[in-house]
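Amino acid chain
________________
===
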Amino acid sequence: MKRAGVRDSYEDAKAYLDACAGPYVSGSTPERRHAFLVEGPKMVEYLERHGMQWVHAEGWSDYHEGEYPGGVARSRSLVAQIFDMRRLGSWRNLVRRSLRPPLRLYEASDLFLWGKTWRSKVAMARVAWRLMLRRLGFDLVGTGMAVQGRLFEIALRAKIPLWNEALVTGLITEGARVAGVLVRRHGRDVRVRAERGIIIDAGGFARNAAMRQQYQPKPTSVDWTNSNPGDTGEVIQMAMALGAAVAIMDLSWWNSVSLRPDGTRSINVMDIAKPYAIVVDAKGQRFVNEATSYVAVGIAMYQRQQQAQAVPSWAIIESRHRRDYGWGGVKPGPPPQEWLDSGYMIKAQTIEDLADRCGIDALGLKATIERFNKFARDGVDHDFGRGKSAYSRFLGDPTVKPNHSLGAIEQPPFYAVKIFPGDVGTAGGLVTDEFARVQRKDGSIIPGLYATGNSTATVVGRSYPGAGASIAAAAVFGYIAAKHAVGQQH
């Protein structure tokens, strides 16, 4: 941020984090919030010294800037520089890949305008160049893969022993202390003793149907998650068996998704934030700012579910949205015939017919759209404030006036898609202190046991302050845990 000329301070960051996270709860205590803010910059600098290349995510605003004090419009988020996986040698095939093109995540907003603006044309040209380099033999990746790739390279350069295909089957205790792990490796059981402690960073439980049913709001399904296949929660359960406390287990890192005919999940966070689209419940009523934090949208869906069917909700999409923005990364234009034939995307010439085909209250939907269209013409969303924050404008379309985020729904044909509260992982888990030490229900420490990431109750409470909040907490408290275990953090 300093290199980019963006001003910030501990006081502003604390004011913003406190406003987002709300009242202090287990996992999001004043001590943990303070540690997160103080140690975060140190962690960033530490990784840079070891070869990490960070890029300031220019424009990817704090999600609640303009709503809470201390928000930064130009972004507090970092992304990794584009990385060439060939640098990992034979290890590169072990890094999980996604279908995303090689981009810095903040470029996606311009990219998904599909050349409608000059910035968008530049972004598309930049990504096209990287794709051409791929065809010439470069193995370029961006987004989370670039973070993982360069961290992997740093670990390999430091000659840190790495075991793959090593399944943790239990925790070893000596008295009250956790002294190591049991591992199933190459067909045999191995006891790995840890002199200074172990750190759990095994993800959450988004792929564990039983745990979702026990802890998450209903309805819920493993079919809606985009978390990694290993997000199965068994290591959290191992710690719980030792008396570890858990908290915030009902929260996930919600990402609005739709379920395509082929069974894949389409993340539609940016799509529903574009002009000419809204999200409604079965009564046809809006209940959330569609261009706010995706976690806030998921929370709102479940809150609305107590009053009307909102899981799933419906994205109502106008013809100009289909013409200009695409859907789920699929380019703009007439929807694939498979989408229409399967009922994934429903098409109609009138709002009344669309409502009838979706089972939405037609009078409610018509009234909602009439009200929203007035907001779009005036440039002010008087119900939910969409288009007020820098983040919502960043996800919008600068060619749409008077508000980049608001576009009237009035030109047929109209479309509708079911929207589910998908996720990229769960946000609750083991309760830890400011040194990342796992705590029991009475607040005492389990000696030798540390945890971070989605295995823990998040430091940001029931919120998502900005892009990368979950990864940031994982990295910062992993850094803190390592320093504490070797006696450098007190």
User: Anything to note?
Assistant: The mean pLDDT is 96. Residues 253-423 form a domain with the Flavocytochrome C3; Chain A, domain 1 fold (CATH 3.90.700.10).
